[in-house]
Amino acid sequence: MPRKHLLIILVLVISASLLLFGCGSDQTRDDQNAGVASEEQGQVDVIRLEGGDWGYPSPYAHYPRGPGGFKMALIFDGLLERGEKGLIPWLAEKYEIKDNGKQYLFTIRDGVKWHDGKPFTAEDVKFTFEYASKHPMVWSDIGSDDIEKVESVGDRQVLVTVSEPNASMLYNLGQTRIIPKHIWENVDHPKEFTGPEAVTGTGPYRLTDYNKEHGTYRFEAFGDFWGPVQKVKVIEFIPVSEPVLAFEKGEIDLTGVSPDVLPRFQNNPAYKVVQSPGFWGYRLLFNMGDYPVLRHKELRQAISYAIDAQELINKVERGAAVPGSAGILPPDHVMYNSNVKQYNLNLKKAKDLLARLGYDRLDEKGICQNKDGKKLSFTLSVPDRAVRMAEVLQEQLAKAGIEIKVQSADTKTHDARVRNNEYQLAVLGHGGWGNDPDYLRERFGGLFKGGISPSASGLQGYNNQELNDLLEKQCLEMDEQKRKQLIFKIQEILAEDVPEIPLYYTTGYSVYRPDKYDGWMFMFDHHSLTHSKLSYLERD
Amino acid sequence: MAGVLKLLLKPIKTIKKFSLLGKTSFIVILLILLVAIFAPCISIHPYNVSSGPPLSPPGGEHPLGTDELGIDLWAQICYGARVSLLVGFLTALLAALGGGLIGIVSGYLGGWTDKILMRIIDIMIVLPDLPVMIVMAAFFGPSLLNIILVLALFSWVFPARIVRSQVLMLKEQGYIKSAETYGAGAWYLIHRHFLPEVFPLVAVNMVRLTGRAVVAEAGLSFLGLGDPTSKSWGLIMHHAINFAGIYFTPFWKWWLLYPWLALTLMVISLAFISRELEKMADPRMGR
């Protein structure tokens, strides 16, 4: 008899849960209607996006990847912001570059208020630069010895004197998030400061809810914001298991889609599909510091020749990417040099190069070895989402006689491993490839500013004096055209030397409903619609 | 010679007593075992290297289609059977050996040893196994051996409890008492009297543990905690599910369906066999 009872209970449970699910979707539909109602002015009450924990959105506590940093940037403003075409004045009304790049004079905006109602002053800017030099922020744009001194000139002007002129300094100063002096002046350990005051900024949004466990954030428009009207009143980041499904059901308002799913949304006026520029890429890193064999240029070139980037793109990204340029800068970059040496698949060249290094015989498994019996066998560390890519790489390199063992870890563990140089070969994916080319100096000039962003980590044991000189020279060059020539030359050297292999830059698709909200835009050097602050604000 | 024959005949006799369902299940497991053993012969394509266009549907050169990298699915499933069976049987064996030993020690010695062991078993039963397994698999890093060890660590309690109660009961039997008075040592009693009595129960339990381990391994691999380059069924499904928007494409119809089918068949068959065996070991179940 108990079996019959069980059956009845089971049926009851199932019907109850069905009822519950039904209610759930009704509710979302109601919300959608609410969104449409106030849509006349192009405004929307709530925009929901895919969540996930990316750390507390203070300039010192967020995770050093886009989804963390750009949430923080909703709360905190910089003196300049990244617009559609380039940098635009933001907290600074205007700026002047003096003394051939040695001094920057920022005139700050009047009537700006912090979220707690206190007025924003030039003192705050001065304090921020001094504090950030002492305690580097997560996305540290300025190092400890970049700034010589900061003076406030009157109430509304700040004069920054840098240690030496640097072409990317304006970008770096402008991007530094300004923090309130009255809150941070007594904070000695900014990384541990995660109270509600820690997210007081001047930005268009205030953090009203954050749940680390669920990975949810809620941002509400700040009423006294100085700048453009917020077209989105509330931004919510919610947990999502299958983004495309959640988007179709209207739970989230924008999602990335793979090319296979694209036909569902294309040619349908209810949806708008946008392709991202290729500023998010994967690179293959060599730990040349701990593994001397990787210091041979020929080996790295051979690996380049053995990799078929197009196959990787077709299989792993389903075609939505562009192959890496050996000169590092992606084709969409303003300073991209299209004439650098490129390494297309060429197994013969790869084998010749290996033979030149002495790896001219194969063992029984087809792995190259030299006359001492030393084999070309490497461990490749990958984040878990790139395991499939690692399998393709394994197969491709095996054809050239190089054995690859794959080791995977979750993204955050993997980032930390690469940061601490605990790898032999590694695949690292991140954004920021479109930024000012001065990042080449950070990566290859043996200069490490102390930031923990994945885009800055992962190269040790590489030193090329000619390259270093050029990298130093380009950042002192204030003339745009002359600098471009230098950057072109740098790309040529990088392409010849292959200190790392850019595999490909993704050009994924995003889809959204223009009826609900149509304000999305890309920043001039970035790959994501949701990351740009101006996406949520009134623009002309 | 006759002894060996008898030993071989015994399981066959047992299987003859199975119901139709039990017999079918046995044949299915036997088939999977054969597929696993002869994987290199029956799969035309390699299981770890691409051999065709990515995501081609079943039919033609690839009987079950290919995955996103163009690797033949049939080959992957054949080799996956090896992983699943290996994990299943090794885990069950380890758990049965460890659990059986602990059960006998606990039941035979009694006293404080028994109390301590029983409390440990209580704790292990109360612990939710999947979350702890996830933590341990994440901590020890993804490898097949680790998965087997972690699974065994959570499976030994079931045989241990059963064996202990059996030993407790046997201990009070007259013939054991008299053997003891004749000076039989602990070892003699264990291998002469306890093991033969306890073995059928443990064997039944092992079948069930195998099924459980196969599912758990698939689950851990599915969550991405398995060996990333091994080809277990759970891992095939993991890759399929992680393919962006798989349900909006036709790909799930082979990439996800076939490994799932194989897994389900195997687990259901194991469950039926264990039920049949239980019926035989315990006539009260046969109602």
TrEMBL record, chain A:
Alphabetical list of CDD domains matching this protein: PBP2_NikA_DppA_OppA_like_21
Entry keyword annotation includes Signal: yes
Keywords for the protein's UniProt record, in alphabetical order: Signal
Gene3D superfamilies in UniProt: Dipeptide-binding Protein, Domain 1, Dipeptide-binding Protein, Domain 3, Periplasmic binding protein-like II
GO CC, alphabetical: ATP-binding cassette (ABC) transporter complex; outer membrane-bounded periplasmic space
Ranges where the Solute-binding protein family domain occurs: 87-445
A Gene Ontology biological process term: microcin transport
UniProt-listed SUPFAM superfamilies: Periplasmic binding protein-like II (SSF53850)
PANTHER family: ABC TRANSPORTER PERIPLASMIC BINDING PROTEIN, PERIPLASMIC BINDING COMPONENT OF ABC TRANSPORTER
Protein name (record): Peptide/nickel transport system substrate-binding protein
Species whose genome carries this gene: Desulfoscipio geothermicus DSM 3669
From TrEMBL, chain B:
Keyword flag Transmembrane helix: yes
Main subcellular localisation: membrane
Topology within the bilayer: Multi-pass membrane protein
Family (UniProt): Belongs to the binding-protein-dependent transport system permease family.
UniProt KW Cell membrane keyword: yes
PROSITE patterns: ABC_TM1
Residues of the ABC transmembrane type-1 domain: 81-274
Keyword terms, alphabetized: Cell membrane, Membrane, Transmembrane, Transmembrane helix, Transport
Protein localization: Cell membrane
Transmembrane regions: 20-45, 83-109, 258-277
Domain of life: Bacteria
Protein name: Peptide/nickel transport system permease protein
Entry's Gene Ontology cellular component terms: plasma membrane
Gene Ontology biological process terms in this record: transmembrane transport
InterPro entries according to UniProt: BP-dependent_transpt_permease, MetI-like, MetI-like_sf
